[in-house]
Fold:
Amino acid sequence: MTAQAAAMLRGQIADIVVGSIFVFVGLASCSIAAFRRGRGVRTFIWLGLWSAMYGAVLLDRSPAVLAVSPRWARIAAPDADTAITYLLVVAGSLSFLELSLGRLRRLIQAAAVLGVVIAAAGVFDALVMKSSGPWLLYNNLLATGILLILVVVVVVPRLSARYLALADRRVLAGGTLVFALEALFVNVARPFHVHTPAILDHLGFAALLFSFGYVALQLAFTNERRLLAVENELEIARKMQLEILPRGAPRMRHLQMSAAYRPMTAVAGDFYEFVTIDEMRVGILVADVVGHGVSAAMIASMIKVAMQSVASSAAEPGAVLRGLNRVLSSQLHNKLVSAAYLWLDTENRTARYAAAGHPPLLRWSRGALQRIESNGLLFGLLEDCEYPVHAMTIDAGDRFLLYTDGVTESENGRGEFFGDARLEEIVRRNQGRSPSECSDALLAEVHRWRPASVPQQDDITLVIVDVE
Structure:
């Protein structure tokens, strides 16, 4: 048996080597896909499967390989060969699909679905009915049709530009033409009983596979450069956004303040501002753009500019919010913004508060925690809107907390909100600590509530003010 296997091996060495190479290339391509991201990953997966299946067919059809294979492998070889033969067309179609655009993409999707149907019917006939049926012919016709479409599209520049996501079509055109010409030569020669070495089939397929792989790498590298450029732009945007936020809480007589800002992503839709009139009077604005990402961050930046236009009304929270709403309404483009504004005057020991669809102001005073809601409509709903003002007398020992809903709506692993009750309990428990210590304790509790496996769902902003 050993001598017989050696003799068979010598006659089939080319198929075995080529098949092993294709299997190795396929596995390598799938491994690359596992470590990459973005567009082009699926291309590597389908190319990898396409290559591995082609190589597996060559090994599966080698008597020398089967002779040294386990018994179960020899028994399963015919069925595996049938299934892979059909599925090769599907893998090739899906590889082509990842490079296609527009109507061509829809056409290739339909071809892939048809290929799956033909494969299912063909495998069922072969395994259950023990009949080959007409399915292999249909499979070959489908493969021929897809190849003809590919040849036409890649050869005609106008069609390539319209229907293929390629930076350079020349390599794909070359590989496709080599494969098509080889397939045409073999099929023309067969009726005339002209022998064509199997290596031609392997080289033709290798040319096609290489051209697809080259294009996939081009797309992957282009995608990486694009992602890097976007990340750089986001980093610049993040730095610019941080620049528009206060560098720290202002120093005031009879007030101690702390601000915390935790964006969900590189750029955020939360915003806060201190409007300092003198060392005894200050206005505090906290705003939250509904939504996330760059558009929300741009609107948050616009609030900074809009706030400057209403600074002369700093002592009137209702006027501040009316002015902000009027300035921003035409610029929001269907976005909405919630906001809260607190005015503190330690000389006259008074405070005024107004809000626009914002979570309530929390006030700790004389051993009790109060929820102060003085809400008008969100910015962006109506251009002219009134905002009711809540007036208060402030005393030493009072504490105020303004925050965005990223605090109370933070979710745990079961999808439960952190909630108002937990927030209020933490405020009570940390009343004897400084504003910055209270803020740190609250953020730590929110972080513990949200497990590491659950990403932050919203931007978080906290401003805590103590009256002395």
Remarks:
- The mean pLDDT is 84.
- The chain has 14 helices and eleven strands.
- The domain at 2-231 is CATH 1.20.1070 (Rhopdopsin 7-helix transmembrane proteins).
